[in-house]
């Protein structure tokens, strides 16, 4: 067993050994009480790597005493599934832990699902991807619980590390180690909520440290060297990456500069510069919009500069763009107005284009009645430019308003012009 990684050896053997995730598996939860009373439901465990999905599955198996089998959907075949179905027939009921369940193919499902439905196989699926996006509905419908795990807290990780240092059978308890509470906190902080990373880092630190008179002495510089980038997690095509993009946009929209820079930093550490630039450009028009039209040009310049510079220098113009967007006035009126127009069209609110607006640049247009258009530039109105009162919307949409100005920043001026032009229409 000592040849196995520390993170593997320290997996909880029952529910009472689980560290963290108390909102899911704590003693007061319904799931804990069900399992203690001998009932294990099929479930999906959803969350980032290293935060306890596999550990919870093993702990449930240990507490329930039912036969337990583990498969990874990335390489499990139909024969693997059939073998577990056969075991279920013999045992009456088994637990199957299926990691990366979102990769389960239809053939495997067809073999397994009837047995999950009749209860002979209790399915515990684990996924890092949003189960509502990436797990087949047939699987979801047979799992009564869809449980979203959280990253472990600093206190959770310190407790986990302390347990590993004390445990003589499975941890490092047989090896005298000199390590301070502050150093444990540094390791926990570097792991960024990931139990596997925390234990892996602790094990690496142990083997990288010098022994003096039979005691392993942990030095700060060893922790700092091994902890580099250990907290970074993000699959460019995965749910967490899109959650980071979403959090970045919502932080900018909410004018929280510090949160926005935090999510930008995390996104840039994943290395997908193009996706970040695309999202920032969208945000400039979606969330800042007419309140500060110059921001669109500024963000475009920043993202183009970032793409030309590449990482790590790209972070400099992007940081400038994010701070400017956070602190800018905001408006979503323009794209909201367009969405309202699209909605109206999709609801069948359409009509004929007025004849005077139709193309009149060909012989015969006059015979079709495409006449009467008034050229606005021929009628100046103050310092605004040309304007003339004439119908533009189809007859059945006259009076329909899609645009609703937001009184913010530069749009205050545009809103005043919009209202003034409406008043002219009434007067003429």
Automatic annotation (TrEMBL):
Stored CDD domains: AAA (cd00009), HLD_clamp_RarA (cd18139)
Signal peptide limits: none
Residue ranges constituting the AAA+ ATPase domain according to the UniProt record: 39-151
GO biological process: DNA synthesis involved in DNA repair; DNA-templated DNA replication
Highest taxon, organism lineage: Bacteria
A molecular function GO annotation: ATP binding
InterPro entries in alphabetical order: AAA+_ATPase, AAA_assoc_2, AAA_ATPase_RarA/MGS1/WRNIP1, ATPase_AAA_core, DNA_pol3_clamp-load_cplx_C, MgsA_C, P-loop_NTPase
Keyword annotations of the record: ATP-binding, Nucleotide-binding
Pfam families: AAA, AAA_assoc_2, MgsA_C
SMART domains: AAA (SM00382)
Listed PANTHER family: ATPASE WRNIP1, WERNER HELICASE-INTERACTING PROTEIN 1 FAMILY MEMBER
Family to which this protein belongs: Belongs to the AAA ATPase family. RarA/MGS1/WRNIP1 subfamily.
Stated name of the protein: Recombinase RarA
Source organism of this protein record: Ureibacillus manganicus DSM 26584
């Amino acid at each position: 067993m000592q040849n196995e990684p520390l993170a593997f050896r320290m997996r909880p053997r029952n529910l009472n050994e689980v560290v963290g995730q108390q909102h899911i598996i704590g003693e007061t939860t319904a799931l804990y009480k069900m399992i203690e009373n001998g009932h294990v439901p099929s479930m999906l465990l959803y969350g980032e790597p290293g935060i306890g999905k596999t550990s919870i599955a093993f702990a449930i198996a240990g507490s329930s005493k039912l036969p337990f089998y583990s498969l990874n959907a990335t390489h499990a075949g139909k024969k693997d599934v059939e073998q577990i179905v056969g075991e279920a027939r013999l045992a009456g009921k088994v637990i199957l832990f299926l990691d990366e369940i979102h990769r389960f193919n239809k053939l495997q499902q067809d073999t397994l699902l009837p047995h999950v439905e009749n209860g002979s196989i209790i399915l515990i699926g684990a996924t890092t991807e949003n189960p509502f996006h990436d797990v087949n509905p047939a699987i979801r419908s047979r799992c009564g619980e869809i449980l979203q795990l959280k990253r472990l807290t600093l206190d959770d990780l310190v407790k986990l590390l302390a347990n590993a240092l004390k445990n003589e059978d499975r941890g490092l308890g047989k090896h005298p180690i000199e390590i301070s509470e502050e150093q444990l906190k540094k390791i926990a902080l570097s792991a960024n909520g990931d139990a596997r990373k925390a234990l892996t880092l602790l094990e690496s630190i142990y083997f990288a440290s010098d022994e003096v008179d039979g005691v392993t002495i942990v030095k700060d510089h060893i922790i700092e060297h091994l902890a580099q980038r250990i907290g970074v997690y993000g699959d460019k095509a995965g749910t967490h990456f899109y959650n980071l993009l979403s959090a970045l946009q919502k932080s900018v929209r909410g004018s929280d500069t510090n949160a926005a820079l935090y999510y930008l930093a995390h996104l840039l550490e994943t290395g997908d510069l193009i996706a970040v630039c695309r999202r920032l450009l969208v945000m400039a028009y979606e969330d800042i919009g007419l309140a500060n039209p110059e921001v669109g040009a500024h963000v475009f310049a920043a993202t183009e500069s970032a793409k030309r510079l590449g990482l790590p220098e790209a972070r400099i113009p992007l940081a400038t763009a994010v701070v400017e967007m956070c602190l800018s006035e905001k408006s979503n009126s323009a794209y909201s107005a367009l969405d309202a127009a699209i909605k109206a069209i999709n609801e069948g609110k359409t009509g004929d284009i007025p004849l005077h607006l139709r193309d009149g640049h060909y012989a015969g247009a006059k015979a079709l009645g495409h006449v009467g258009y008034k050229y606005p530039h021929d009628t100046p109105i103050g310092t605004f430019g040309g304007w003339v009162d004439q119908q533009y919307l189809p007859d059945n949409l006259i009076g329909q308003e899609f645009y609703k100005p937001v009184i913010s920043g530069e749009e205050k001026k545009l809103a005043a012009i919009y209202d003034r032009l409406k008043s002219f229409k009434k007067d003429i």
